[in-house]
Design brief:
heterodimer; A: 220 residues; mainly alpha; disordered N terminus; B: 9 helices
Chain lengths: 220, 201
Amino acid sequence: MTEIFIHKGIEVETDVPVTSLAEELGTTRDLFLKRAAIFGGSVLAVTSLGMALPSGAKASKKTDIAILNFALTLEYLESTFYAIAAGEKHGFSPRVDRLARVIRDHEIAHVKALESTIPSLGGKAVKKPKFNFSPSLYANETTFLQTAMALEDTGVGAYNGAGPALTLNPVKQAAASIVAVEAMHASWVRGVAGTAPAPDSFDKLLTTDEVLAAAGPFFA
Amino acid sequence: MHQNLAAAQTRRGFIGKAALLGGGALAATGAGVFTDSAQAASTPKSDIAVLNFALTLEYLEAEFYDRARSGAFGNLNEGVQRFAEVVYSHEQTHVDTLLATIPALGGTPVKKPALKFPKLTQKTFVRTAIVLEQTGVGAYGGAFPSLKSKAVKEAALAIHSVEARHAAYARLVAGTLPANVAFFSPLTSEQVLKRAAPFFA
């Protein structure tokens, strides 16, 4: 089972049985494996590194790399979603078209930054997964904005949830500078959708599992 | 890319600058009254200092929006009034949370400093809100790498992104691009103080 993940190019030391990881995650083994496969192994990387690797600079670096690969996967997802929105005619109003174009450009910039940061730390960036964005998501502004809202709120929660585990200061700084922009996107999308841009005094810190539950449907 | 930030925000740096903010900073540093609880004992003073620095900014934001929603900057239209009410409620919650968290971690919260605000109109209120919120985002983002305690990191992150939502909300209300950069630069404590200084009496 561990070969799946190694083949994806993630540097994982699989000294922990997959079954025990699944138990730790409070989910079934099959579900866990499915989700791990969806995310190209970065799930396993995050969980196993966080729980099992010996402490030390090398392990710390690997923890950060795994988190960055998890983030990169989400950024691939977002950038693809907005590229479809901005690249084709959907009959959106000018302000929604503009939102899609601007956010697409930001997400692409995040992808590029992560793709170059991960190797600079000695890691290997995950490949872009295959996505499944149904044309119905772009059928009207409301559906598009609702999906965008879910993705942005999930992105904010994902970075926030991973933040406390980061070890390297430059990575922490980069994550902070990206999550702020994801939150600005979330607020923007919500405002344009006519819902509260900032619905709460505190944002959530999502677990890996919660992020996967929200993003899973978009993976082919 | 921002490696120098954490180094710039040494405990001493925060203390020195916090003192500029109105005397209450002594509490930020002087504390040392750690409780017996494991968490309090394990919370570094530098984290407490960051929380007190954040509390000072939250006092500023809360009073700013409280004045706005109460009519100090003239009548606001419905959308701007709602913005002021919502953001006030969040900032006051941040103040209350920090006031409860700091002692729980063994620190002493700074007192609310005396504040002053210029005469503002609806339009300049919203523009000032953009500056304050962006300062808040940069402050939390800049301080994050220096934090040591997991609980403090979690609290800071949960607040940081809400400040970013506020910033975009303010920009949306002002009719300007809500997210105008792909990466939001963190601020050093010096930069934060420079931006916030005009509001301290």
